[in-house]
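The instructor's notes for this session suggest beginning with a concrete chain rather than abstract definitions. Hand out the sequence below and ask the class to guess, before any prediction is shown, which regions might be ordered.
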Amino acid sequence: MRLDQEEESQNIEDRRGFRVSRGVAGGGIGTIVIVLIALFFGVDPSLLLQGNLQETNVPQAPSPQSEQPGKQDEMRQFVARVLGSTERTWSEIFRAAGRMYDKPTLVLFSDTVQSACGFAQAAAGPFYCGPDQKVYIDLSFYRDLRQRFQAPGDFAQAYVIAHEVGHHVQNLLGIMTKVQSLQSRAANRNEANALSVRLELQADCLAGIWASYANRERNILEQGDVEEGLNAAAQIGDDRIQKRAQGYVVPEGFTHGSAEQRVQWFRRGIETADLKQCDTFSRRSVS
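After discussion, reveal the predicted structure:
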């Protein structure tokens, strides 16, 4: 990727090196498990939580598994530029539609973090929390993306952030609230999961719009970048994740979409750069 023309976002909140101490009202271990499950399966944890989680930040030594400090600083600059690129793109798109784009904050954390959606661990992966309009990521996830998911490359890393920013766009447009309302009234888990899949695929498409728009305006993509991004989308498809974890696939349990679906919708955003083409909810099928 070529990010030299992209300014670093100032909306970075660096909580790395702080430990989260939890005071849990009406919850305990069960509440934490619910939050982790919700985050992993694409459900807003705030819909499931009862009681409040309180945070105390205490400095701690870096995790032994963390990247080297120099590498972490390099990655911080990278994600700040990617976020800055999304801010520039979505501000222009919203302005053209006569709206103001409220920029999200990107929170960097180590191991554990407290958000308005509850407590989370790095194992849950990057996530967006609607109530506080923040994207959360432990940068060690990029090591997992490269090694565990076999999805190397800087554009693969940028795609992860752009996808979460896509959720922020959905939040600003009121889409997340509507979907959560529908999920709360769903007849069963399968119906709720199907709505989650459509929400996630739309976020993939929105990530593609950012990439297309930014590349057209500022030539950010290099040869092979698109392939890196599409590979990342495929590698984190529900079918491949389930296959790795349990050896078989249960389509009814999908919450983010299959590898094929994720590639299809990310590619659609890249190729069309058209918000109307990202409407996953009015279609009979998203395959």
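Then share the key points. Confidence is low (pLDDT under 50) at residues 23-66. The longest helix spans residues 189-218.
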